[in-house]
């Protein structure tokens, strides 16, 4: 009996009654259209006329269902009351013609079945209860209840409770079957169309792109800061008693590095809190402040530039170039034994070129399981700008090279 009176069956029954309630304005409008054809006769005095008005009401309801917002409202009710999994239903308004037609078909089906079941729910229980109590209240037999003639027989009252209970069970069965029918057809009529699936895939791709951008920012900013701070703290600890001036310089570099990184971290976390609004340009340091990065990087850097890239490169290119240099310095700190690094940044026609080199360590660096994320992130940064980046051994040095397009108006070059 669970499928008749269980929690899911009751919720689906409520969903049908909701459809019946929604059908009432359309039914009243349909009775207005039927009125001229029946003269002075009241539509509510005839079951046939009521069904006629209801038949006129359903096409009117179908027309109103072409409004885009009907689908999200219907989907919300189905998810809450019909037990249909979320993934099988579409999100958002119907944006195409086929989606609106399917939504109109669903709305008509819901209101049609809901109107019938709601009418039965109003009419059947009072009559069934009367039959159940008929043997106990003998005076009911002498009142005009409109019972069929079969109940005039002397043996009929004894069977009246059985008939009343059967009517209630039949009502519950009709409601359960109608609810199951709606639950079965909901994914078909309210499910995502190919256009909906494409739009959802584009939203997921855009969200993943934003998340990857934020992940790269956190990795490059925080990863470099931790590497620099660790190296400088270790060096200061080793000469704590012999070189106070070096310790003072190391602590100053640590302070500057952590202060800058906290600001960058706060910016990224602010974008994370914005959620969907974080899809615009991501703010961050550019080549204008590259000197501060190099001064507090924890390694000696021989820096040369050609063409004034800090002033002439577009902001997006300048920002990504800064991060690429930062990742190169982080790799030199982690794997290059803090050996001196040479850095060259040059504007060559329509391209910004970055070349970083540091000596290979005597011992092979320890590689984390699964590899790091820094160099793949550098390649992604360059690719998103339409450029290219690569890194690897080059003779007895480790070389990181990146080429980023800047447009024909950047100028520069030798």
Automatic annotation (TrEMBL):
GO molecular function, one term: kinase activity
Region: Disordered, residue numbers: 386-414
Gene3D superfamilies xrefs: 1.20.5.1930, Histidine kinase-like ATPase, C-terminal domain (3.30.565.10)
Residue span, Signal transduction histidine kinase subgroup 3 dimerisation and phosphoacceptor domain: 211-276
Signal peptide: none
Entry's transmembrane regions: 12-39, 51-70, 109-138, 158-183
The enzyme's E.C. designation: 2.7.13.3
Enzyme class (EC, first level): transferase
Keywords per UniProt: ATP-binding, Kinase, Membrane, Nucleotide-binding, Phosphoprotein, Transferase, Transmembrane, Transmembrane helix, Two-component regulatory system
Catalytic activity: ATP + protein L-histidine = ADP + protein N-phospho-L-histidine
Protein name: histidine kinase
Organism expressing this protein natively: Streptomyces flavidovirens
